[in-house]
Amino acid sequence: MDDRANSEPVLHLLVGDTEAEETTPDYGGGRGFPTKDQVKTAVKSLLKPVDVPISKVRPHMDELLKVVDQLFAQTGDPNNLGLVLDEVELTVEINAKGQVRILGSGVEAGTMGSIKLKFKRSPQDAG
Predict the structure, then answer these.
(1) What is the mean pLDDT of residues 77-103?
(2) 91 has which bridge partners?
(3) Considering the entire predicted model, what is its pTM?
(4) Domain ranges (residues) in the chain
(5) pLDDT tens digit string along 17-45?
(6) CA-angle at 15, arms to 110 and 27, nearest 5°
(7) Which of 85, 92, 83 is nearest to 71 (CA)?
(8) Are strands 10-16 and 115-120 parallel, antiparallel or unpaired?
(9) How far is CA 58 from CA 6, 9, 20, 47, 115, in A?
């Protein structure tokens, strides 16, 4: 019998290992520049796999969705300029505690695990 069939679904994340040593590896020889493989190995050593239960993520994601919903509700055209918000795109990260955080400007999503969420106004609300 498969134990996973009865267990809660989880997100499998790679998160920064806060207990990893903060030392610079010695790449030896030459000018000291690491090879591509050495960089990959170093990055992997700083990450650890973590399983986060959906029940920890859901309340944070629900809160984010409420905020986005309120944002859409407040984006009418109060000044009659003919402009309305049609779409919101957010990049979020989920940490090992299940917290959902919006990545602000200046953060490159490619450097960490992230999820891109795209919310579009429903057709009946667009008018």
Answers:
(1) 79
(2) 116
(3) 0.60
(4) 3-120
(5) 655 555 555 555 556 677 888 877 777 77
(6) 75
(7) 85
(8) unpaired
(9) 19, 11, 29, 24, 14
